[in-house]
Specification:
elongated; 3% strand; Arc Repressor Mutant, subunit A; 72% helix; Diphtheria Toxin Repressor, domain 2; 3 domains; mainly alpha; 3 strands
C-alpha cells in the first residue's frame, strides 16, 4: 500500500495524542491499583453516549461529551459507594458497575441505531482512519483539536498537582495528614480520566483507550521506580505504540500476502502489548530474564559458600595431618551435579581453593583467601545458632537448619552485632569454636 503523509500523518498524530493523553493519567491509575477503573469508565460511558444520541437525535460533540463525562464520573462515584457501604472489594465493585452500565449502554445503542447514524463497531476501534477526511487547508480535523485539548488539559493537571497526586497515590493517609485531600485528588483524577476517555473514544475506540491507559504505564513501572522517569518512559512507549501500530496495520498484512490493511487502533494496542511483553522479559530489575539470572547467580553463590563451609569443617577435623579433602567427596557432599562442578571451577579461578594430587586421587584444599571466606561463613552460622539457643531456647538438634539458611545472608555488620550480644561466648551450642574476626 502507498504511504501518504496527507492521510497517514493525521492518523499517526491522532494515535500519538490519544495514547499520550491516556498514558499520562494511566501512571496514577497503575500506582493507585485502579487499573480496572480506566476499563470501567471506557465501557461505562456508553449509556451517556447513547442517551445523548437518543435525546438530541444527532452526533453533536457537546451533548455526547457531556453525557459521557457525567456517566464516567457516576461510575467512579458508584464504585466508591459500593466499596464503602457494600463492604465489597474495590476491584469487584468496579466490575459490577461497569458491566451493568456497559450492558445498559449496549441496549441503548441498539435503540439509538434506529434513530441516528451510529455504527456500534466504532465503540470498539473508533473512527481514526476517517480523521484525515475532515482535514482542510485552513483547519485541523475536529478530532485532532479535541485530542490536543485533552492532552494539554492532562499536562496542565499533572503539572499543577504533581506533588499532591504523587503523595496521595503512594500514601493517602500521609496526604491527609499533610492537608492534601486524598479523596478530592481521587475524584479529580477520575474526572480527568472520564474526560480523556470521552475525548479519545470517538477517534480510537475503547480498545485503544483501555490499552493506553494501562499498558505503557505498566511497562514503564517495570523499568523504573521513579515517578517522573516512569511518566516520561510511558509517554515514549505510547508514542512508539501509536507509530508502530499504524505501520503494522498498513504494511503488516502485505508481509503475509494479504491485500487488506488491519484495523489501526487495534494494531496500536497490539504493538503496546508487544512492547509490554518485551519489557516483562527484558526489564533489568523486574524482568523474567533478569530475575532468573539473579536466582541462578544466588544459587551458584550458595553452592560455592556451602563448599567453602564444607572444606572448613573438614579442615577442623584434620588439625594435625592437614589432609586435603578428596575432590569426589566434595562433589558428593554437595550433591554432585553440574552446579557443584561449576562452583568448584569458580572457586579455583578466584583462588579460594586449590587442587592438589594425593595418594587417594585429586583433592581440594583451602587457600588463605578461601579460609578467610569460609571462616566468615562458618562464624555466621555458629553465631546464629548461639543466638537462637540463647534467645529462643531452641533444642540443640533444631538449630542447624535455620542457621544454615541464614548463614548466606548475614552481613559483616550483622555478625558484629551478634558478637556484641554474645560477649564471652567462645563456642556454639555444639561445643565448636566460633571463628574470631582476627582469624578471618
Amino acid at each position: 500500500m502507498q504511504w501518504t503523509w496527507d492521510i497517514d500523518g493525521w492518523i499517526i498524530l491522532a494515535g500519538i495524542l490519544s495514547a499520550c493523553s491516556c498514558a499520562l493519567l494511566g501512571n496514577y491509575l497503575v500506582l493507585r491499583r485502579l487499573s480496572l477503573m480506566g476499563d470501567a469508565i471506557s465501557h461505562a460511558v456508553l449509556p451517556g453516549l447513547a442517551l445523548a444520541f437518543i435525546i438530541t437525535q444527532s452526533r453533536d460533540t457537546v451533548p455526547m461529551f457531556l453525557g459521557a463525562v457525567i456517566i464516567g464520573i457516576l461510575t467512579a462515584l458508584l464504585t466508591q459507594v459500593i466499596t464503602r457501604y457494600g463492604k465489597v472489594e474495590h476491584g469487584a465493585a468496579m466490575g459490577v458497575v461497569f458491566s451493568i452500565l456497559f450492558a445498559v449502554g449496549l441496549v441503548l445503542i441498539r435503540r439509538a441505531t434506529d434513530h441516528v447514524d451510529l455504527d456500534p463497531a466504532c465503540v470498539l476501534y473508533g473512527n481514526i482512519v476517517q480523521i484525515p477526511l475532515d482535514a482542510t487547508v485552513d483547519a485541523l480535523p475536529p478530532a485532532i483539536v479535541n485530542l490536543i485539548i485533552a492532552l494539554i488539559a492532562n499536562v496542565v493537571f499533572v503539572a499543577l498537582f504533581y506533588k499532591e497526586l504523587k503523595i496521595s497515590a503512594f500514601d493517602p493517609m500521609l496526604a491527609t495528614t499533610l492537608g492534601i485531600g486524598a479523596g478530592t485528588m481521587h475524584y479529580a483524577l477520575m474526572v480527568m480520566v472520564a474526560i480523556t476517555t470521552v475525548a479519545c473514544f470517538e477517534a480510537v475506540g475503547s480498545i485503544l483507550v483501555i490499552a493506553m491507559l494501562i499498558v505503557p504505564p505498566v511497562a514503564a513501572h517495570l523499568l523504573t521506580d521513579r515517578l517522573g522517569v516512569m511518566i516520561i518512559i510511558s509517554l515514549l512507549l505510547a508514542i512508539a505504540s501509536a507509530v508502530g501500530g499504524h505501520l503494522a496495520a498498513v504494511f503488516g498484512p502485505g508481509l503475509f500476502g494479504m491485500d487488506a490493511t488491519a484495523e489501526t487502533s487495534a494494531m496500536m494496542a497490539v504493538v503496546a502489548g508487544a512492547l509490554l511483553g518485551i519489557t516483562i522479559l527484558g526489564s533489568p530489575q523486574y524482568g523474567v530474564i533478569a530475575r532468573a539470572w539473579n536466582r541462578a547467580a544466588l544459587t551458584m553463590q550458595i553452592v560455592r559458600q556451602d563448599m567453602l563451609g564444607l572444606l572448613y569443617r573438614w579442615r577442623e577435623l584434620q588439625p594435625r595431618s592437614g589432609r586435603a579433602m578428596l575432590r569426589s567427596d566434595v562433589l558428593a557432599a554437595i550433591n554432585g551435579g553440574w552446579l557443584a562442578k561449576r562452583a568448584l571451577k569458580r572457586l579455583v579461578r578466584t583462588r579460594e581453593v586449590v587442587s592438589v594430587i594425593t595418594n587417594q586421587g585429586p583433592a581440594i584444599r583451602l587457600t588463605p583467601n578461601g579460609l578467610a571466606s569460609a571462616s566468615q561463613l562458618v562464624g555466621s552460622h555458629r553465631l546464629w545458632e548461639t543466638y537462637l539457643a540463647k534467645h529462643f531456647n531452641l533444642a540443640v538438634d533444631h538449630l542447624h537448619a535455620p542457621a544454615e539458611r541464614m548463614e548466606h545472608f548475614i552481613s559483616s555488620e550483622m555478625q558484629a552485632e551478634l558478637r556484641e550480644q554474645l560477649t564471652e561466648v567462645q563456642t556454639d551450642p555444639h561445643g565448636k569454636p566460633i571463628p574470631e574476626p582476627d582469624e578471618l
